[in-house]
Design a protein that fits this description.
Length: 379
């Protein structure tokens, strides 16, 4: 049985990632993002316009996207509550973040402890609290959104983190928000949630990221490459390596989530959010090396049909062209990515992997199978 704990941290415990290769400057509301590596310094200042102060609930918020989103919301003066199971620390101090800034942030975060799949608890606890806006960061199925809608009949906006994975595969990329969707995709639950929100007459906004990267990323995106680059290993890439994909930095995604808040132009709209440029698989391997200061890697191409890896994956990306247009978000929201790919990868490396922190241990099992066969063929 879930239980509700609403608390405001008075004396936060500090969790500091080791080393100090670079500072965490995050995304400031009115200041430039700065790096110690001048060559990778982003151009221009980042400004996030303030909106009326809201009582905001974030479903999730302690792992990746929500860590950066909640900071921006608190900076704007909103009252922010995280709904989690309480299995992870509610806040964590980020690399380079001052004790004062972290203490100020963590003292303002509220926590509602429970399991979102305990629908009765969700209804009763949310109805008792009342919220103006919901950011649903970790919702996967439509049934998970229903009790939230039921509990908050006067909700001003439901902002949903969907996925570009809902689009039907096409021979004419990039994907646009008006493109056909795939009801059989592994993200069909997100697609069904979007449909539910619309059918229930909720004032919703849906964000569809492509691949997300950046510090604290729990998916093996850039980390997969960094592990291999660190060990000086060849990078095994399926087929030709010219498959085109797209990555968006988590901090840029967070600013997009801020930009749709209370924005009438975003009501009942879908927006693709990702990086400005597309990149090939081979290009991504080289970009990771450049960002982290490693030599250009040796790349080995292989035919995945020749291998049986069981339940293991030989490569962290879908083996196809997969990218989306972000023009709607740029024109309607006035949003634009602050990071180019190499700058963003450097930010991720310097604030995370380069400090010796990562989510998954290196696993070269499939690499060794691929490389073993390649060496035999070369011989």
């Amino acid at each position: 049985m879930a239980s509700m704990v609403v608390m405001q941290a008075k004396q936060p415990s500090f969790f500091v990632l080791p080393s100090s290769l670079s500072d965490f400057n995050g995304i400031r509301l009115t200041t430039s993002v700065q790096y110690k590596r001048k060559v990778l310094q982003p151009r221009g200042a980042l400004h996030v316009s303030a909106s009326a102060k809201k009582k905001i609930l974030i479903m999730g918020g302690t792992r990746f996207i929500g860590v950066f989103l909640s900071r921006l919301l608190v900076k704007e003066g909103h009252q922010v509550t995280l709904f989690t199971r309480g299995k992870s620390p509610i806040t964590q101090q980020l690399p380079g973040e001052s004790d004062t800034d972290y203490a100020d942030f963590s003292s303002k975060i509220l926590h509602l402890k429970g399991d979102r799949k305990d629908f009765d608890f969700v209804k009763s606890s949310l109805a008792a609290e009342g919220f103006d806006v919901v950011y649903d960061i970790n919702g996967r199925e439509a049934v998970e959104a229903e009790p939230i809608i039921d509990a908050l009949p006067n909700l001003e906006q439901y902002i949903y983190c969907s996925s570009a994975g809902v689009y039907l595969k096409t021979d004419c990329p990039p994907h646009f928000e008006t493109d056909a969707v795939d009801p059989k995709s592994r993200h069909k639950g997100k697609l069904e949630t979007e449909s539910l929100l619309d059918a229930r007459g909720v004032n919703w906004t849906s964000i569809r990221p492509v691949y997300i990267y950046g510090p604290l990323n729990y998916n093996p995106v850039e980390e997969w490459f960094f592990h291999r680059l660190k060990e000086g290993r060849p990078i095994p890439i399926p087929n030709s390596g010219i498959q085109i994909t797209q990555l968006g930095h988590v901090k840029d995604l967070a600013t997009a989530f801020i930009n749709v808040l209370g924005n009438e132009k975003a009501f009942k709209e879908v927006f693709n959010i990702s990086g400005e440029k597309y990149v090939t698989f081979d290009g991504l391997a080289k970009a990771c090396a450049k960002a982290a200061g490693f030599p250009e890697p040796e790349i080995i191409h292989y035919n995945p049909k020749e291998f049986d890896f069981g339940k293991k994956k030989g490569f962290p990306f879908r083996d196809q062209h997969f990218f989306a247009s972000i023009e709607k978000a740029k024109s309607v929201l006035g949003w634009k990515p602050e990071f180019d790919l190499v700058e963003g990868l450097a930010d991720s490396y310097n604030l995370d992997f380069g400090r010796g922190t990562f989510r998954k241990e290196a696993d070269f099992f499939t690499d060794d199978i691929i490389l073993g066969k390649s060496l035999v063929l070369q011989a």
